[in-house]
Amino acid sequence: MYRTLALATLLAPLAACDGLDTPPRQPWSPDFDPLAVTVAPDDLPLPPAECGRVTRWRYTYDARGLRTRAARHTDERMPDRIEERTYDDAGRIVRAQADWEGGYVDVTLERDPDGRIVRRVVDASEPSMRSTAEIVERGETREVIRYSGAVLLLEPFDPITERKWDPFVREAVHDPLIDGDAMIMALVRRIEAGEDIDPLFDPFDVIETRTFDAYGEPLRTEWDLDGDGAPEQIREWNRADPRVNFGAIVLDDYDADGVIDHRTENITDDYGSLIREVKSTGGQVYSDRTLTYDADDVSQILVGETLRLISAEGVESERVTTYAVEDRAHITRIDEDGDGAVDHITTIWRRDDGQRVLKQEDGKADGEVDWQRRHVYDVDGREVYSQRDRDVDGEVDLRWDYGWSAGGRLLHAVSTEPGSARCGGLRR
Question: What's the whole-number average pLDDT of the chain?
Answer without folding.
Answer: 89
